[in-house]
């Protein structure tokens, strides 16, 4: 009888370890509060078909080109004071974490496109964010953005894992912990 109990105990322990491992990736993301609202996780993640937007040369870009990276997708405009307030933090975040696994994609919704956003980048000293524009608001509409700024967090598969409306301190320890959570979740 003892060998059966011992095997049962080992099996139970293995099942418990496997279960803990399976649920560890499904842990709740860390809390992150913005100035007007909190980060709202989306579970299960949503796949959204997205239209193209433009790079600084006016060439089409699609979010598919960022697959494999966790992306902070931020919508902003030069006429939006909360957007302007958070841009330096987004720039610092890209400077610190941007690379093979992570990117900040800040998309201007200014109707005048690069004519408005490029001078703003120069005046504000934004050096690490690439200029992107969504002059028609199609990309913002795909994410059901109703006000600015709005930031959507995408996982490595390009799925929406959460969002926050309003400005946030994106270079804070809390923001970095949130990003680290999603970087670890599906690490390659």
CATH architectural name: 3-Layer(aba) Sandwich
CATH class category: Alpha Beta
Strand content: 15-25%
Could you tell me how far the N terminus lies from the C terminus, measured between alpha carbons in angstroms?
45 Å
The main pleated sheet reads as: 8 strands, mixed
Query: How many β-strand runs?
Result: 8
- CATH domain topology: Glutaredoxin
Question: How would you summarize this macromolecular structure in one to three sentences?
Answer:
The protein has 188 residues and is α+β, with helices and mostly antiparallel strands.
Describe the protein's topology.
Elements (H helix, E strand, L loop, with lengths): L1 H23 L15 E7 L6 E3 L4 E2 L8 E7 L4 H17 L4 E7 L5 H11 L7 E2 L4 H5 L7 E5 L5 E6 L7 H13 L3
Parallel strand pairs: 4-5, 5-6
Antiparallel strand pairs: 1-8, 2-3, 2-6, 4-7, 7-8
